[in-house]
Tripartite ATP-independent transporter solute receptor, DctP family
Amino acid sequence: SSRHLTRLATVTAISLSLSISASVQARELSVSTVLSDAFPWGQAAEKWADLVAERSDGELTLRVYPNSQLVNGDQTREFSAMRSGLIDAAVGSTINWSPQVPELNLFSLPFFMADVDDVDSVTGGTAGEMVFDAIESRGVVPLGWGENGFRQLSNSRGPIDEPADLDGLKIRVVGSPLFQDTFTALGANPTQMSWTDAKPALTTGAVDGQENPLSVFDVARIDQVGQEYLTLWNYMNDPLIFAVNQQVWNSLSEEERTLLRETAEEAGAWEIEMTREQEPERLAAIKERGVTVTELDEAQHQAFVEATESVHDEWVPRIGSEIVEAARVDMHGE
Ligand code: X2X
């Protein structure tokens, strides 16, 4: 009957408008990462997305865009893109954001943090708070920490256990000026390039070496592009930071903010633990594939420390001596 049809139309209209308003309310945020979920880094972002989807009943979702694709492969533009709102959020490396947030160079100071206890003392201490304030003052809201890991040195030429071994070696470094200075101080010939360009450059032999955490070396099979020598020198740790654009943050409800922060902290803690737990197996796998692994004794370590002291002289003022001092106190006490 026509009455029946009218009712049907009304019901349809109501359910249509309900689903439209639901889809307007359900919000998807883009999350940028440099590495995919083949790596702990990408897995950290996916974990964050899973936790958010679960606990928001799908009302708020995160969509992860790996391989720096939202910044056309240029990872040093990730922070600017997040600040300007081109991307909503990111799980990013302190190295890649340091061109815009100089305080983040704290973590790249060579041989400043010796082990994971030092890292945790800094990220969980006063210096960590100061670093988060520095990020926030530049229009991005930091939520939690993750970890890419301690960065180790590999090359195709031979074992490296003293600075002289780096003499004239072409080393791919990330696009952050501090790394240029560190490898220049060591007598190497550093070349800045994105991760996207790094593997081809290693493959063709355009560069002799690179530096990255064990997880990256292992998953990306860096040994298969001729990097047969690996020096474990723990010269710096590369923390990851979960963060959101300020305007996006302001537009969220109090409940959504709490959800995003708690899930970022949880995903970060989960990824840090996993990354650290996996390192021994990764090292064993790398050795198994025939890579010559060099460890430094105390005197050899000291020679690298001394060779890079000029980098501290140059960079502590740019980072801010207050933050560097706070980090020292966080690690070693007053
Ligand atoms: O480019 C690198 O070496 C990487 C993947 O480790 C970073 O993004 C810092």
